[in-house]
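REQUEST FORM: STRUCTURE PREDICTION
Request ID: SP-0412
Submitted by: Lab K.M.
Chain count: 1
Length (residues): 166
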Amino acid sequence: MVAKPSAVARPAVLSCRLVSTPFVPDGFVVPRGLATDRIRLEPLGPEHNERDHQAWMSSIAHIRATPGFPHGSWPTEMSAEQNLADLVRHAEDFAARTGFTYSVLDGDEVIGCVYLYPADDGGHDVEARSWVRASRAELDVVLWETVSSWLAEAWPFRAPLYEQRS
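STATUS: Completed
RESULT:
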């Protein structure tokens, strides 16, 4: 019997460690989002595909230069169909409590992403990464400050790894 190839290849998006067990306590209520006067975070899912794809495809060089994306291996160009498969994976991780990815919005415009996945360095309990599209680069520090405070106030993590912005 010959195995059928997958209809959509799932590209490696980030060097986040894939885990099969939740990395937050069972009783912890995962935040469904965050809103400030400048940005809004909501769980990333397939409904963001077109806007998300356009946001990062227009900002590849900018994202690669953002702290937290040190190897320049992501993002790489991909089709909207490949991006959709990746968004489905992020939504599945969120539902399984193995990773949490949020779309960063200004109104309905996708302007970035925040990723929270288990750190694999032995010294941190979560690795946070974020990016904003090149056309909204002035919000990078704002997003970093907002997410840093949110991690300290609303999440159970004690030792986050989240590269500082300046």
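NOTES: The chain has one domain: 34-161.
Reviewed by: T.R.
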